[in-house]
Specification:
By secondary structure, this protein is α/β, with parallel strands linked by helices. It has a single domain, classed as Rhodanese-like domain (Oxidized Rhodanese, domain 1, 3-Layer(aba) Sandwich). The termini are far apart.
């Protein structure tokens, strides 16, 4: 399980990005979207193009995330994704290339940005 009492002492804070800005930037080749919610949450609904690496598996799987592209992390509301971003920064990922998506999947879907939900034709 992912440590719940993660403390972050990085040189610079993790940047935050709102869903609309993230959607626009994800259209470029230099951005990737990592969803840290559990597999059942991801299966229920997720931002189109997101890659699922659940927080419960994050310490074992984080190295699957390429370090080159800008990385936007998303969860339900923004708390778990911030933990994941801080973990990546502590494990050698460039802080300036990490972004937490504020409002998470809740805001992404509420803003009707492209998402996948079983039963909606996708």
């Amino acid at each position: 399980m992912f440590p719940g009492s993660l403390t972050y002492s990085g040189a610079m804070p993790i940047g935050e990005m709102n869903p609309a800005d993230a959607h626009q930037r994800l259209a470029g080749n230099d951005y990737q979207l990592i969803d840290v919610r559990e597999a059942d949450e991801f299966a229920d609904v997720h931002a189109e193009g997101a890659i699922n690496i659940p927080l419960s598996q994050f310490t074992e799987r984080y190295q699957e995330i390429p370090q080159g592209p800008q990385t936007v992390l998303i969860c339900r509301s923004g708390a778990r994704s911030m933990q994941a971003a801080q973990f990546l920064a502590q494990n050698g990922y460039d802080e300036s290339r990490l972004h937490n998506l504020t409002g998470g999947t809740n805001d992404w879907v509420a803003q009707d940005l492209p998402h996948v939900r079983p039963g909606n034709g996708e």
